[in-house]
Design brief:
single chain; alpha/beta; 2 domains; four-stranded mixed beta sheet; 19 strands; globular; binds zinc ion
């Protein structure tokens, strides 16, 4: 998924490592991946000591990065085969769910009873495909899983092969422990998340729902926010915005460029795009966003907290909304529908006035808002009969938010507090889309928990050049995820 920036200052890797080894601040040259876990007041994890498991999972992550699953074309089957071999060795019976040539999802199940109850089952979801790379902009080979300064570099290291390897580790750990479990745990590696096309979760559900039907899911989309060397909070994604592409089309007479007229389609389009780009949709608080800000206020400094607490007040609300939206583009995205013009196309030759000019705008709606209402606002704003809007096919679907009162949300909250010295869980609405929306539409209580403590700087490298995952964070994330899964598997 796409990630967004927060406004906090960048935390250097040294600060990050200092957090993992609180007694010594290692010199820069000593930034090697460390397995040392802080021995602070953590309650013992029901998953036991995961140090060796995390090392093993680092190897799986490296191998998965080396399998190029850039989408398009995806070629996820190669990754699915790799994971299937590991699962088979561990005594599972993984099953390929074929979607298109070269494109399969993979599912495996840890059974709790002869007659499983899908409504209790927990699904561990991660996608195998990655976005493409511009190799020339990387300082290392993006498919080599190079380890440098305590980081594993590689396309997909964060999005989403890190989670894929961590899910695998938590799943295998539970099996190896022979612990008695009270619900089925299902491992699912999906395909085509980045494009949402022929091999996406939508197709997977349509074709194979019975293979992985579950009441609960854990997926990407949240974040363990590392700030000034400390986990500030754990954002758990319980809802997401709805992506809709809209074409903006201008028409006018074509003609010789030597005799221009006022009705040039390019000029009309440019004016329309400029107005749309300056548009700010009204703020609307969803339940999740309201709760997020309520819980965020006490974690921020006094100045920011003051603004956050004023967000929904009659006298200072508008000012606070503007201040916070400017301070942090992610907050802006959580508060309102957003529009980003992304593509422009017009003309065939420099001396020919074209009869049509087109722009593409990428709209992200708050769940519950409708594209028709927004387009009618934009039409009024543009106020030009030469312009029309055309909603593109394959728009996202709005899903109901996952419950903040479920047993699983409570389990995640407890595990986060134990893992990260009392760090709170904040519910989160993500601007980016994930597979969870489709799951929520099938009554799954799906939560986005990307379990690795990450600074803003590292989070921003998702989909960008030199994507990298701190290995110490990966190990910590494996521990966190195994804790959540083991705890919930045993729960009655
Ligand atoms: Zn992703």
């Amino acid at each position: 998924m796409n990630w967004n920036r927060r406004l906090h200052s960048l935390v250097p890797a040294v600060a990050l490592l200092a957090w993992f080894s609180p007694l010594v601040e290692p010199p820069v040259a000593a930034q090697v991946p460390s397995t040392a876990m802080p021995t602070v007041e953590n309650t013992r994890s029901p998953a036991g000591d995961t140090t060796a498991l995390a090392k093993e999972a680092e190897g799986w992550l490296a191998d998965l990065i080396r399998i190029d699953t850039s989408n398009p074309p995806g070629n996820e089957q190669a990754a699915a085969k790799y994971i299937a071999a590991i699962l088979t060795k561990e005594g599972f019976t993984p099953e390929f769910l074929d979607l298109a040539p070269g494109r399969s999802a993979l599912v495996a199940r840890l059974r709790s009873a002869a007659m499983p109850d899908p409504s209790r089952a927990l699904l561990l979801v991660a996608h195998m495909d990655v976005v493409g790379v511009d190799k020339s902009k990387w300082t290392v080979d993006p498919f080599s899983a190079t380890i440098k300064d305590g980081y594993m570099y590689g396309r997909g290291s964060v999005d989403d092969k890190g989670m894929l390897a961590a899910n695998l580790a938590a799943f295998i750990s539970l099996k190896r422990s022979n612990a008695r479990i009270n619900r089925d745990i299902i491992f699912l590696a999906t395909a085509d998340e980045e494009q949402g096309g022929e091999a996406s979760i939508r197709m997977l559900i349509a074709k194979y729902w019975d293979k992985f039907a579950a009441g609960f899911a854990i997926n990407e989309g949240g974040r363990v926010v590392l700030n000034n060397g400390k986990v500030q909070y754990v954002a758990v994604q319980a809802s997401e915005k709805v992506p809709v592409d809209v074409a903006v089309i201008a028409r006018g007479p074509s003609g010789h460029a030597s005799v221009p007229t006022k009705d040039n389609a390019v000029v009309h389009l440019a004016a329309a795009v400029a107005k749309i780009g300056g548009y700010t949709a009204p703020v609307r608080f969803t339940t999740i966003v309201r709760r997020y800000f309520e819980q965020l206020a006490p974690l921020e400094d006094d100045e920011l907290a003051k603004w956050i607490r004023s967000l929904d007040t009659p006298d200072r609300g508008e000012h606070a909304q503007r201040f916070l939206s400017d301070a942090n583009p992610l907050w802006n995205s959580m508060l309102r529908d957003t529009i980003a013009p992304t593509m422009l196309a017009a003309g065939v030759r420099a001396n020919v006035i074209p009869s049509e000019a087109r722009a593409m705008i990428n709209v992200r709606l708050l769940p519950g808002d409708t594209i028709d209402v927004l387009i009618s606002e934009l039409s009024k704003l543009v106020n030009d009969p030469a312009i029309r809007f055309e909603v593109q096919p394959d728009a996202g679907l709005a899903a109901p938010p996952s419950s903040l009162e479920s047993d699983f949300y409570a389990t995640i909250t407890k595990a986060a507090s134990q893992e990260f010295s009392g760090a709170p869980v904040l519910p989160f609405l993500s601007a980016g889309a994930t597979d969870s929306a489709q799951l929520r539409l099938h009554n799954v209580q799906a939560y986005g928990v990307s379990p690795f403590p990450m600074t803003d700087e590292d989070s921003r490298r998702m989909h960008a050049d030199d994507e990298r995952l701190p290995l110490a964070s990966f190990d910590k994330g494996v521990d966190f995820l195994a804790r959540i899964v083991t705890e919930f598997a045993a729960a009655r």
